[in-house]
Amino acid sequence: MIKPVLFSPEEQSIINDKRESEGFCKESWSDKDLAGIKKKIKQHYLVEQNNCCYFCRREHTGKHGNEWTTEHLLSRSDYPEFMFEPFNLCVICWKCNQSKQDKKIIKGDFGKYPDSSELFQIVHPHFDIYERYFPYYEPEVLYFPWGDKGAFTYLLYNLGRFSRDNKFEEFSKYDGRIGIKANQYAATLNTPGVSEEDICAELKEIKEDLLGVLLKNHICESINSTG
Ligand SMILES: [Zn+2]
Q1: 0.70 exceeded by the pTM?
Q2: Is it the case that residue 227 has pLDDT exceeding 50?
Q3: How much distance in Å is there from the Cα of 64 to the middle of ligand 1?
């Protein structure tokens, strides 16, 4: 889990003034007087995330600064009140950002920022452990989601795009089925009499099958050493 950004009293005062100002809305994020605070936010989360996009885990090479964006998990359009909420922020790449846009990730309305994992449909950078929902992944190649949250995150941030970009047909078929599979696993988790060990064994089997396909096609040999 990543740590939230901490604002100084001066920064907090600028933020409070901004939120109380007339005409405060989602576009206020682009106001020039917030440039320093926005820079601090981005830098904080880049360090916390080891220079990687939180969702696809692509590394920020430093060459394309504009490709990285501060993500408002609850969107600025629907929740301008959470624009500066540290738990609502992380850094993602522009492709993940483009896939998600303003899509909803919670059910219901909340007066204050929802503060626990189960209230969110996505893997939440501040409340969840990424590896719990993506037990196997290889950045820019393969993501194996686990459970509802894993599947929802996979689809929302379009993590199947790498296999499609590689024009690897067999892998794309896998991508098409993956949301359904992950949901089946989530359902199995709640089935009496089925132990987590059984599920893990089955998951391992699927991983082996997938590895066979990957290795056969020389797509990714390194994944064999993970998980
Ligand atoms: Zn990304």
Answers
A1: yes
A2: no
A3: 13
**Tens of pLDDT along 176-188?**
555 555 555 555 5
Token representation of residue 51? 């220079």
How far out from the chain centre does Cα 194 lie?
29
Residue 125 binned pLDDT confidence (cut-offs 50, 70, 90):
very high
Question: Rounded to the nearest whole angstrom, what is the distance from the C-alpha of residue 171 to the centroid of ligand 1?
Answer: 19
The helix (run of H) or strand (run of E) holding residue 2 is none
* 151 C-alpha to ligand 1 centroid (Å): 16
Cβ–Cβ contacts within 10 Å for residue 67, how many?
15
- Residue 226 phi, psi (nearest 5): -100, 155
Amino acid (1-letter code) at residue 80: P
Taking the centre of ligand 1 as the mean of its atom positions, its distance from the CA of residue 8, in whole angstroms, is 29
**In the block, residue with structure tokens 């609850």:** 74
Residues near 116 by Cβ (< 8 Å), separated by ≥ 6? 127
Domain parsing of the chain, residue ranges: 1-108, 129-227
Rounded CA separation 166/172 (Å): 9
Q: What is the pLDDT of residues 64-79, one digit of tens each?
A: 656 789 999 999 999 9
Rounded-to-integer distance, Cα 111 and Cα 164, Å: 40
Gap from CA of 198 to ligand 1 centroid (Å): 32
- The rounded Å distance from CA 214 to ligand 1 centre is 22
Q: 68 CA distance to ligand 1 centroid (A)?
A: 9
Do residues 134 and 150 touch, judged by C-beta distance below 8 A?
yes
In the numeric block, which tokens belong to residue 170?
A: 């067999």
Contact 41, 89 (CB under 8 A): yes
